Known about the structure:
The protein is α+β, with helices and mostly antiparallel strands and 570 residues long. It contains 14 helices and 20 strands. α6 crosses α7 (168-174). The relative contact order is 0.13.
Amino acid sequence: MAFKGSISPMPDTSNEEGSGSGSTPNPSTEQAGTNSPERASDLLLVVSFYAEPVRTKIIELSGSAMDELTKLAVSEGMFWQPKQNYETLDAVQYIRHFGNVDGTLNEIIKMVEIGEPEYLPFFNSCPIETELNLKQATPAEAYEVEASRDSAYVRMNPIEIAEWLMDVEKWSNVFYKIVSRAMNLGILLDGVEGSLDGRLQVMSGEFHVPSALVRTRECYFARYSKKLSDTTWAIVDVSLEKFFPHPSINIRRRPSGCFIQFMPHQGFSKITWVEHVEADNRNLNSTFKDIIKSGFAFGATRWVSAIVRQYEYSQTLKAKYSPPEDAVKRIGEAGRMGMVKVGDRMMRKLCSEMSGAMRNQWFRLPPSSSDIEDVRVAIREHEAKPGKTSSTTLIFSTSQWFPIAPRRLFDFLRSADNRPMWDLLSRGFCVQELSYVAKGKDSANRVSLLQVTDDMDHYVINYIQESHTDISGSYVVYAPMDKSAVTELLEGGDPEKVGILPSGFAILPDEIPMDDGPHSGVASILTVSFHIFDYNSIKSAVPSQSLHVIKKVLRRTFEAVKAFVFSARI
């Protein structure tokens, strides 16, 4: 195992996909600022400045974190209590066994305090830290512990999963429903003979739930990968904020990560994820408060589900295509691949745009007499392409609670038959699912080609729609496409060149779901996000006519959902 003599920063990876110049108005102060590679590199300077003995202590800390993760992952019942569909940590047993887990950190803190205090860089921090900033740091009593464990099986080799986690670009791509932004800041230890076994790196991450109303979580951490046996790997994260503190950091990662056990006779890997954090949950949006404080919103189930979804996506791309028997329009292999890839692009873009990530820089609409509260808006300016003029688009989003099971709401929103009830462009028309590509075991997980026609059967517009549901949440994302664009895509056109402005829905349970069946959960938190062209807005303001459109679209959408919820409860 080689010890690297220096650290060099690596580029950051953002999940934002092609949003143009991204000029935005009056950002909400909660999420203002951008991640700066120059500021992030300050962490490397801090680590280099304390080359010894702090660097050695970081290595020791990562080793002890790996030991803790392994014990928590393989324990059959000593540390964990069943809670609905996953497990939560037994705090008493944990303290009895591990005690002060971060004793190493205490030594580091003492060493750091001997000299001038150094503070961990934050995405939007100022160059100079002050004593005032230190006084504004989150008090220790404000942090709440969230700890959960979940597992799943995928037909993959452990090293493939390890590569997803240790490569920052792959990590961002696989976990795009959770990770808003990630940076690999440098490598402290090389792996054995250049492999991932024994590799230790320093990273930063920004994590989100699918709503602009929820503040993202950010932290800096060490990630350590180790091959424990011929069939077992583990990748552990442990927070660095405790000895390189910064007042704006709102999460501390206790030893968390992925434990992978390969079963050669079955050809499967069992993935066990442990997510253990201390989080500042003050000032939470009331709609999301319970599901966040339960540990589910940022918990192990969402991480495991992301791995399963990525595996299913890769299998869909590899599978031999057989058109569904109930399809109205039969499409070829090229069209299938194009639909799947455009659907994946739409889903990624929607998750990026509807989150509270700092780069989105939302601003809040003034309250109105409408019962739709806390609407967030962002303006995007898109640079002109050759032969075309520049354009401006509006993204607007909000979240509301509805007393209906998440799966029932998901099935309502994804159905072509129901679309005219809530979609203004389809109102009064007929919507038909022409064809679809299934993704995974659940038949509702699919990419669909929808067509809208009038009462004379005249063509109006097409939609590409992707729907996906699992125990961690449900999504319906769509984008309008004209006939020529659809034809080009189905005939093998480049799916990366298809222009899309995705809109859609994200549905979370308002409490920990009992299972992933159709009646799982008592109620739902529905987040809507619409992305439309707007020729009236400029980068500094949204005119009144555009505000009228925003309110009209949201009002009619929620009216349709409320009508469905009322009829479903009769």
